[in-house]
Amino acid sequence: MKNDILRTLSRPLGIYVLIAVTVLVPLVQRARASECKPLRQVASVDLVPMPNGIRMVPVTINGSQEKLVLATAAGLSALSERAISAFGLHPQSS
Question: Which helix (H) or strand (E) holds 57?
Fold first, then answer.
């Protein structure tokens, strides 16, 4: 009995993954296009192309209008010192 357990534990992990996939895949239901609701637009952003290829977004904060870079791959949002001054913002340390 002990040898059987050791032999089972020493099998490659790939066999267990294959067994799990074989058992679980038939249980997964796929989404069908006919079951989905039509797409609807919930928001839009007007992009202003610049000559260098960068896309800018016109924004208004505190009544001041500026164009800011839209960086969709950025991990955070940031404003330059110039933008902070232009919008009349007062940064606070956190």
Answer: strand 55-61
Question: Which tokens go with 24?
Answer: 């679980």
- Taking the model in full, what pTM does it have? 0.47
Distances, alpha carbon 1 to alpha carbons 19, 64, 71, in Å: 23, 78, 61
78 vs 82: CA distance, rounded Å: 12
Domain positions in the chain: 2-29, 48-86
Tokens of 60: 């208004």
4 vs 18, which has greater pLDDT?
18
Taking only the tens place, the pLDDT of each residue in 19-39 is 777 777 777 777 777 778 888
Tokens of 2: 């002990």
Stronger pLDDT, 11 or 80, i.e. the higher one? 80
Do the Cβ atoms of 55 and 47 come closer than 8 Å?
yes
Q: Is 67 helix (H, G, I), strand (E, B) or coil?
A: strand
